[in-house]
Design goal:
Blueprint: H1 3-7, H2 13-30, H3 32-40, E1 55-56, E2 76-79, E3 89-92, H4 95-109, E4 116-121, H5 123-128, H6 132-144, E5 150-151, H7 158-167, E6 172-178, H8 179-185, E7 195-200, H9 212-223, E8 227-232, E9 241-244, E10 255-261, E11 264-269, E12 275-281, E13 290-300, E14 303-309
Parallel strand pairs: 1-13, 4-5, 4-6, 6-7, 7-8
Antiparallel strand pairs: 2-3, 8-9, 10-11, 10-12, 12-13, 13-14
Helix pairs in contact: 2-3
């Protein structure tokens, strides 16, 4: 059975764990960087998910994290926005797996693109190019098969007219927006109560950083938003989590989040206090499915909340990687 047919199922906990270990063994055998990391931290025989070594996300800035040695066979190379300095690179061997992951995830949490109109306000991602987010939204826009679905770069004054025209089609409207651009919309006195608004990407240094609570409060009050979602994704992953209103992100069935002690990357916690987030993304089959992110979070029921970034985010243990 092909990987893509194994990955995208509604796995039970046991099925997920069994498949995660199958992926672990595959990536140990085929991803040189991951093998070197696992070997150097001496954790080649994990007994449960908590014992699987999670690769520090910073290594995507310095290494080619791939499961074969010929990057010329890659379908795509996605680059991070670079707001934290050097850009990360994700070499994607099979872009069809990425497409299946984000399409199924979007349908799982938001809806069928064929029944929607999607307007995207993602100027900084379009400017830099090579963005996995732009690739995702562009494909979702095309799947709507509507002339009203589109990207809008910096012409914010076009948003009200674009939404007004879209509403005449009688479909639900989804507005994807980077956080600072959504904040800019508040100056237009718009009414977005009939739209699904999906915030992504943060302030990118364009505005003063606000807490999520404060930002959502302002957006809802000024723009009359009734459904405000947030998307959690990154260049180094091929799957996304979504939250709505309560700041709790939920993952699709092929993605899980575990929690680690912020002072010891190999000590796992239950996530009831601020912890580093370790993500298992089975869609990352051809790079690395076990990523130690720089995000600080808390467990919230079956989901998680982002509460910040880990200071000095070069996770202790990176220097153990064999070059």
């Amino acid at each position: 059975m092909e990987w893509k047919n194994k990955i995208f199922k509604n796995h039970s906990d046991r099925e997920f764990e069994d498949l995660a270990f199958e992926v672990f063994r595959y990536q140990m055998d085929h991803c040189e960087v991951y093998y070197s990391f696992v070997n150097s931290v001496r954790k080649k025989s994990p007994r449960n998910l908590n014992e699987i070594p999670f690769l520090p996300i910073s290594l995507f800035k310095t290494h080619k994290i791939i499961t074969d040695k010929t990057p010329n066979t890659m379908d795509n190379v996605f680059m991070s926005s670079g707001t934290q300095g050097e850009r990360s690179s994700h070499f994607v061997k099979d872009v069809n797996i990425y497409e299946r992951s984000f399409e199924l995830g979007f349908e799982f949490f938001i809806g069928d693109p064929n029944e929607l109109i999607i307007i995207a306000l993602l100027p900084n991602y379009l400017d830099q190019g090579d963005s996995s987010l732009v690739y995702m939204v562009d494909r979702l826009i095309k799947k709507t098969k509507s002339n009203h679905s589109r990207f809008i770069l910096n012409d914010l004054e076009k948003i009200p007219e674009a939404i007004e025209k879209a509403m005449r089609e009688g479909k639900k409207i989804v507005l994807f927006g980077v956080a600072y651009s959504l904040m800019d919309l508040m100056e237009l006195n718009m009414d977005l109560r009939d739209c699904i608004v999906i915030e992504t990407g943060g302030m990118k240094g364009r505005r003063k950083e606000l807490s999520k609570v404060a930002m959502y409060k302002q957006l809802k009050e000024k723009l009359q938003i009734s459904k405000l979602y947030s998307e959690y994704g990154m260049t180094e992953l091929l799957s996304q989590a979504y939250s709505m209103d309560d700041f709790t992100f939920l993952t699709p069935p092929w993605m899980r989040v575990l929690y680690r002690d912020i002072s010891d990357p190999f000590m796992m916690t239950n996530g009831d206090k601020g912890a580093g987030l370790n993500v298992i993304d089975l869609a990352n089959i051809y790079s690395c499915s076990f990523i130690a992110t720089d995000d600080l979070g808390l467990r919230r029921g079956n989901g998680f909340e982002i509460i910040g970034r880990i200071q000095d985010s070069d996770i202790r243990g990176c220097n153990l990687l064999i070059e």
